[in-house]
């Protein structure tokens, strides 16, 4: 009996203990759930606030570019209309951002180009653009600029230095687009003239593709090769092509000319026209308003060219430079997409470079080096 009473007392105490625990849990659980919910809500709010801050910051103008920048553009040469339209694009973009640009032309003298680079560094410019040139001449000066905290963006050269963005026109694609069109038009067989000069990074790259082209199309034979860069390359090329035409006076002696620079293409086109040998077709690289006029002429031998918009090249280079000044990451290398422009794709009436985009898809547009704050910077500068 005593055992039974003791057991009953123990069961009663146990039930009271369990009830108390249950009540305590019921009292505590909502508070814990509430705390967890508060934490989750706070976490979401923090994240959203962070995203909101990021979006706001992306539209704000970075402090480093709020004041007008002083930019130096160091050019190896300014031969031909491609160079003039390129520098026009540079000036347009810098001025749109409210800055100013000083252009230094080295007249195809690398030593002079290196001196111009030193001059710009000593003037403590905010950024440096380099057009063409060679690393062996420019690398010491570029390193000096970087040590002083002056960002550098170069175009069409062989610089390979940490911190420098090097842009190009994808010279390999340019050459292949033009050469492939030539080969297809000749059905893989014929005699051609090659106009070329060494010593320039884009020319060296285009020549690499030309050598591969000869392997790919062994029945296309090179009958003559010449070329040089001078103060009047187009006229010199015209004179040299006239001499070649005298060496090969008969129709069928020459089927086509590959001219991987528009200054070359202009010269050979004029020589062919004046000799009345318009059966010889010209395949070039690069494009400008002057080039377009030659291509669009009736019976023009210049039938195709691979190109990028030179003004957009300049604008993109400036945008990358402003990104660097603003402290944003930029790629070490960037190739703009080239386009093949064929005479047969152009309208009957004469058009300018500004109208090419109506006939060649994506011409003259690029998102290279674009940051969200650049629109605000442009509006501020207006």
TrEMBL record:
It comes from the Bacteria. SUPFAM superfamilies: Periplasmic binding protein-like I (SSF53822). It is found in: Cell envelope. Residues 74-329 form the Periplasmic binding protein domain. Residues 27-61 are annotated as: Disordered. One of its GO terms (molecular function) is carbohydrate binding. Residues 35-54 have a biased composition (Basic and acidic residues). Keywords: Signal. Pfam families: Peripla_BP_4. Residues 1-20 form the signal peptide. PROSITE patterns: PROKAR_LIPOPROTEIN. The keyword Disulfide bond does not apply. Belongs to the bacterial solute-binding protein 2 family. This is Sugar ABC transporter substrate-binding protein. It comes from Exobacillus caeni.
